[in-house]
Amino acid sequence: MVRYKGLGSREALYESVLGTEHLNAFIGFFPGFPFLFPLDPRHAVMAPKYNPTRTWTPAGALGLGGPCWAIYPVESAGGYQLVGRTLPIYDLASCNSAFAESGLLMRAGDRVRFHRVEESELIALWEDVYSDTCEYRIEEDLLDASAYSDWVAEVSSEADERRKLREQAEAEPPIP
């Protein structure tokens, strides 16, 4: 996927997902399944979904399907191309106080920023979530749509250059 998208390395893919906030456009086909789009158009990446899908995907998996990132809220089948894992985003038992009002962590319109951690740290954080010793970092903040639109216009030429590189890479013969 990395080469096919015109990215120089796996690290470049990670930089794309980590380098911008993502807007949760809506909660999708499964309860708590957020569809996230990068707010920085320079970090847009697209990938086809698998067909057929996997029979098992772990809860918290971060995947890319088409132009959007998604977090699998529970273990399930899935067709998004996986790149990492996150903290739990769905907890009907409200084991963590972040889920006290709802079993869903995210709502449409929320913004998400991902941070890179080592696997051992993520496993420890999962344990902390379910023992209610992990505090999610949740900030209330409005997105200024006018300022955002002005900023997107400022970076549009760079975003177009990156899009053209992706399109050129996609036009090359598929990787065997």
Question: Could you please describe the fold and organization of this structure?
Answer:
The protein is of the alpha+beta class and 176 residues long. Helices cover 27% and strands 19% of the residues. It has helices at residues 10-18, 119-130, 145-154, 156-171; strands at 22-27, 34-38, 54-57, 61-65, 68-71, 76-78, 81-85, 111-112. The strands form two sheets. A six-stranded antiparallel sheet has the order 7-4-5-2-1-8, with no helix packed on it. It is globular, with a radius of gyration of 17 Å. The model has no long low-confidence stretch (mean pLDDT 93).
What topology emerges from the helices and strands here?
Layout: H1 10-18, E1 22-27, E2 34-38, E3 54-57, E4 61-65, E5 68-71, E6 76-78, E7 81-85, E8 111-112, H2 119-130, H3 145-154, H4 156-171
Overall, the morphology is: globular
Helix content: 25-40%
Percent of residues in beta strands?
15-25%
Distance between the termini: 12 Å
Q: Radius of gyration, Cα only, in angstroms?
A: 17 Å
> What is the makeup of the main sheet?
6 strands, antiparallel
Pick out its properties.
176 residues, alpha+beta, 6-stranded antiparallel beta sheet, two-stranded antiparallel ribbon, 4 helices, 19% strand
Brief write-up:
This protein has 176 residues and is of the alpha+beta class.
